[in-house]
Design a protein that fits this description.
The chain is mainly β. The chain is about 0% helix and about 45% strand.
């Protein structure tokens, strides 16, 4: 074979026929542009790179079919966009972001068929404009996820939409997402918030999430403690608890206690849920502000 391809590149130097070799040979800080095709491999990104596929709103996509996880990021300053990613094994994450990383951007991908669609283990991550479906958990957060932002994703037909297991963070924002049709869990679930600032939605209507058609509560936060602030604003939280098995369908928070935690619930549509639209359990020594909801 000729050492050069039609694009005036050299095979094995700046052109490769698989993603793993491209990542291994690329210097830190490089951009890797990936052509349409099917890549039957799992990849690990262990250096600062920008990896760009052809996009998801195109006829010819770049498909990554890997296994537990299909894509793993273990370095900071990584941008990954423009792929359809599936997990052929389905026992772990389709897309994994390792611990203690900064400036990871995961955008404009289709991510499906894993136990976790995206698993974030304590890193500062921007997750935006992805379609995440057919996973047990759409997005799963654990560890220190300070300054993580989850925005404008279509998270649908998962067991549970967004789930957080004892995360720690100063600030975390969930805005502009569609979180719909869970079949085994909540739209959004946090099992504890301690000394944190959590925003679900935002002051502008465009920042609100649409959380509808989920089998249990649209939003469930099991406890708010230790000087935390939770703001739920401009969301559409309708037609949840489709199983009818929960006493609350829309928003459940509690207990809310200790050290003057603050909960602000403003300007949400919270209607046509099976069961209570809003339930606050055991409010103690806290500030709760509720206004403008329908």
């Amino acid at each position: 074979d000729s050492p050069s391809n039609d694009g005036n590149h050299t095979w094995g130097f700046d052109a490769f026929n698989n993603l793993g070799d491209a990542i291994n040979y690329a210097p830190s800080g490089s951009t890797i542009n990936v052509e349409p095709g099917t890549y039957n491999q799992s990849i690990t990104i262990d250096k600062s790179l920008t990896i760009t596929g052809p996009g998801i709103d195109v006829e010819e996509r770049a498909y990554i079919n890997g296994c537990d996880p299909a894509v793993s990021i273990t370095a900071g300053n990584v941008t990954f966009s423009g792929f359809e990613i599936t997990n052929e094994c389905g026992d772990d994450a389709t897309f994994s972001v390792g611990s203690s990383l900064e400036n990871v951007n995961v955008s404009q991908n289709i991510i499906r068929d894993g136990y976790y669609g995206i698993y974030i283990d304590g890193s500062k991550t921007l997750i935006q404009n992805n379609e995440i479906s057919s996973n047990t958990y759409g997005i799963y957060l654990t560890g220190n996820v300070s300054s993580t932002s989850i925005s404008n994703n279509n998270i649908h037909d998962n067991g549970e939409g967004i789930s957080a297991n004892e995360p720690t963070f100063d600030e975390l924002t969930i805005s502009g997402n569609q979180i719909t049709n869970t079949n085994d869990g909540y739209g959004i679930y946090f099992n504890a918030i301690n000394s944190s600032n959590l925003t679900i939605g935002g002051e502008d209507e465009s920042e609100g999430n649409t959380i509808t058609g989920n089998i249990y509560e649209g939003l469930y936060i099991s406890s708010v403690d230790d000087d935390s602030t939770v703001t739920i604003q401009n969301n559409t939280i309708d037609e949840n608890n489709t199983s009818g098995s929960s006493s609350t369908g829309g928003i459940y928070l509690g207990p809310i206690n200790q050290s003057i935690s603050s909960v602000n619930i403003y300007d949400n549509s919270n209607s046509a849920n099976s069961g209570r639209g809003l339930y606050l359990n055991q409010v103690q020594d806290s500030s709760v502000n509720i206004s403008g909801n329908i």
